[in-house]
Amino acid sequence: MNFDQMLETWRVQDKVPLYGVKRDFLRFEVPREQADLQRSLRRNTWGVYWASLGTSVAWQVVFFALLFAAISWGDITSTVWDYVALGIGIGTILLSVGAYWVSRKRHALWERGFGNSLHEEIRRNLSRVDYQLSRYGRWASLLMYAPMWMALILSFWIVFRISGKPFDWLLPVGCFFFIFPWWVMWSFWFKKQLLVYRHRFSQLLELLNPSE
Amino acid sequence: MPKTKRNQVFEEWMDTHKAILFKVARAYGATHADREDLFQQIALQVWNSVEAFRGEAKVTTWIYQVALNTALAWNRKERKHGWGRQELDATTGLLIAPAERDPRLEWIYERIAELDVVSRSLALLLLDGFSYRDMSRILGLSESNVGVKINRIKATLTAQLAKESNDEL
Question: Where are the domains of chain B?
Answer without folding.
Answer: 1-97, 99-169
